[in-house]
Automatic annotation (TrEMBL), chains A, B:
Its EC number is 2.7.1.4. The keyword Mitochondrion does not apply. Keywords: Magnesium, Metal-binding, Zinc. It comes from the Bacteria. InterPro entries: ATPase_NBD, Carb_Metab_Reg_Kinase/Isom, ROK, ROK_cs. This is fructokinase. The keyword Manganese does not apply. Pfam families: ROK. Belongs to the ROK (NagC/XylR) family. Transmembrane segments: none annotated.
Amino acid sequence: MIIGAIEAGGTKFVCGIGNEHGEISDRISFPTEEPGKTTQKAADYFKDKGIEALGVGSFGPLDLDTSSATYGHVTTTPKPGWANYDLLGHLKKELNVPAGFDTDVNAAAFGEARWGAAQGLDSCLYYTVGTGIGVGVYAGGRLIHGLIHPEGGHVLVRRHPDDTFAGACPYHGDCLEGMAAGPAIAKRWGQSGDSLSEDHPAWDIEAHYLAEAITGAILLLSPKKIILGGGVMYQNQLFPLIRQKVAKNLNGYVASSALDDLDRYIVPPGLGDNAGLVGSVALGVEAAGRLRA
Amino acid sequence: MIIGAIEAGGTKFVCGIGNEHGEISDRISFPTEEPGKTTQKAADYFKDKGIEALGVGSFGPLDLDTSSATYGHVTTTPKPGWANYDLLGHLKKELNVPAGFDTDVNAAAFGEARWGAAQGLDSCLYYTVGTGIGVGVYAGGRLIHGLIHPEGGHVLVRRHPDDTFAGACPYHGDCLEGMAAGPAIAKRWGQSGDSLSEDHPAWDIEAHYLAEAITGAILLLSPKKIILGGGVMYQNQLFPLIRQKVAKNLNGYVASSALDDLDRYIVPPGLGDNAGLVGSVALGVEAAGRLRA
């Protein structure tokens, strides 16, 4: 099966060719420019590849309601030119194959559930912690949508007792993204996270906010795996700190043996930096299956 | 279709007879005593009723993993005699009909989605705010389970700035349940919520904590309806306060027209106090369907 996949990010587009085992045989990437030009570049890449279906994991917010007149559109983004852009429609018109479409983080959660750290499980959460924070939710064997789609990067969090930073989110100030995304770290410390030592107090504060959000998600949804990706999570020292704080927060309340072994429960992506692209392959495989069914 | 339904609470059992339209034709209720005696009383009630299937919405925590050896058991409850009790097994042995089984709050969410305030929607959250706080999660057209099941009554919440109460949860202190369940209100004010006037500052504090949790759930899951039931929610003045605070928390971030009209989005149960029992009927109807499929 030849599947086209697009990880449509706000900064760059990654396009690739994958198969029903989640293997990637080819890829390109290019900067995200104005939507017509960017989409055309993607379509041109796929045109001679013989793809049977397409999967697209995109930055948002998106309209994912298949009964909506604007299904497949990017909706209210501040990104110039992209608001109300019919991303899926333009791609389908050019490529004329069945297509799956979801948020970049839902795609990554799906990829991890198919072929990554949550393989074989019917639920997982995928957090990306980078220039923003996004959360993909896979539960009951499907990706979760609702009014729109998960926007769990903006959940409210209790403050770290030593933290006086006001927060960097233009909507909420000190929500999770406002306190813990890359730009918040840089603003709080006056230098980028990359340049801070492993034992800098920044990481205890960072782990605090991520643990607050993760604890809330465990209590609300009871997911079978929590996967943390994105640039900030290259700071490997965060994992043990986060696990420690989540254990302290839960305090034994949720009785599941999985939570006795957080080293295996809160983990980096099994697919590494490919989670989004491979997840988009999974969306494409699903779309191909829907066609045959 | 004749469906047996049990709302198995920690204080009382409600048993009833319902049909595929969610209508209840008969019911009894009795105190929850030791498990053998209580379960037998329920089974005796149904024995001459000709039920085709049974639905049970129970207090928890529960084992809901159908592949588990202890599926259908109440698990770690401190309630004397009930820990590790095979509730579903005992009922099935006595009644020998297909049975659906879930938490009381998941059952209520399901009932509301079938025949109540979320009728026709594929997602909703059901909160009960009473002696404890529980949350049922219906998403993507199904009830959500995971490691165990939603325990969203214990999510972490930011403090109300005027509140110095330490919190009443034995596990987490000042989690949602520890700050906002009936016993927390009584402990904070030295008198039960029922005896406080409608304009008492208690209700602003109460609304704050519920709004914190609801905001987090909207951001993480984007549910199509939020339903608030339970004894504390008889305080109708809470609804406008909660809606106001949720709107302020979200600050327009989640772009959905449903959130422009919170009077229709954050609502009391359409099924009133019957949500749990009628939801258990829905579980029974589903179990009967599975048998025929």
